[in-house]
Design brief:
Order of helices and strands: HHHHEHEHEHHEHEHHEEE
Number of helices: 11
Number of strands: 8
Oligomer: single chain
Number of domains: 1
CATH topology: Rossmann fold
Structural class: alpha/beta
Shape: globular
CATH architecture: 3-Layer(aba) Sandwich
Radius of gyration: 18 Å
């Protein structure tokens, strides 16, 4: 089947709804983080197991859907900061998830039409959406890599990346709500370090990470429910999140609650209402 036929099939599947489509290379009886997150954001690309786990986590944290939206809103603020204030024109977004409003390339290219973005995710359904929906506007480019953060060397060597991004020029690395999916024994800090080491001076990294610092019991329950659904969610403390930025210069206000990182308009009444730490840092 040609790439064009694949895209047409993907568009048909998207239009009909995914509950009637069995994508290749995936067990739809097992929940996936990208589809569960899509459910929280009000999307339509999820199966019954994704919704079931999403609802179970919502029992532990009733405001989880609001928190997911706050995390998504932060992504937009961070991308605009990188384009406007840091002059970044190319992005590597790992763990992009199901395309929705305010994707990295949409935000970046609205500010600078020539911006280039490479997306990375390990869910074939995300690949289907990326082929069909992630169409660049203006002069910029977008590309998609079906890969896993656990193999950063493969991401960096992928022809879609090397053909789209210039790694001799600053890059904005987006690691938004993805590092929680790696256990400590999978060496998430080493995986991040491999990516950071490959980027030139002036590059920036954007990270959000769920934490138990604001409500330990709730996040402990979330981790347990995720494990029952065969999904890994590892909450980390502020100090542990700061370790991912080691050697890079944190942009003010440093590692902060996601709602309090350079909010648009008035500061939030309760910045701890969303259980995520967020930060942006620059490579010296």
């Amino acid at each position: 089947m040609s790439d064009r036929q694949n895209e047409q099939r993907d568009l048909i599947a998207i239009g009909r709804g995914f509950d009637t489509w069995e994508p290749p290379e995936i067990d739809t009886s097992v929940p996936h983080s990208a589809r569960m997150y899509d459910y929280w954001l009000g999307g339509k690309t999820h199966f019954a197991p994704d919704r079931a786990l999403g609802e179970a986590i919502e029992q532990a944290i009733p405001d989880i859907k609001t928190m997911a939206r706050e995390n998504r809103t932060f992504l937009g603020r961070a991308v605009r900061h990188l384009v406007r204030e840091a002059g970044i024109r190319q992005f590597l977004d790992i763990g992009t998830g199901i395309p929705t409003g305010g994707n990295t390339h949409e935000v970046a290219q609205a500010e600078a039409p020539g911006s280039r973005v490479v997306y990375v995710d390990n869910d074939p359904i995300v690949l289907a959406h990326a082929r069909a929906l992630m169409v660049s506007g203006g002069q910029g480019e977008t590309a998609y890599i079906h890969a896993d953060l656990r193999r950063p060397e493969a991401i960096l060597a992928h022809p879609a990346l090397t053909g789209t991004l210039d790694l001799t020029e600053p890059v904005g690395l987006m690691l938004v709500a993805i590092l929680m999916l790696l256990r400590d024994d999978e060496d998430p800090r080493g995986k991040v370090a491999t990516l950071l080491d490959a980027l030139p001076s002036g590059s920036h990294v954007v990270i959000t990470h769920p934490t138990g610092d604001f409500d330990p019991e709730a996040m402990e329950a979330v981790a347990a429910k995720a494990a029952q659904g065969r999904m890994t969610i590892v909450p980390r403390t502020r100090a542990q999140v700061e370790e991912f930025f080691a050697g890079w210069e944190l942009v003010e206000p440093g590692v902060a609650p996601v709602m309090a990182w350079r909010p648009d308009g008035e500061p939030p009444v309760d910045p701890h209402a969303a259980y995520y730490w967020a930060g942006v840092a620059r490579k010296p």
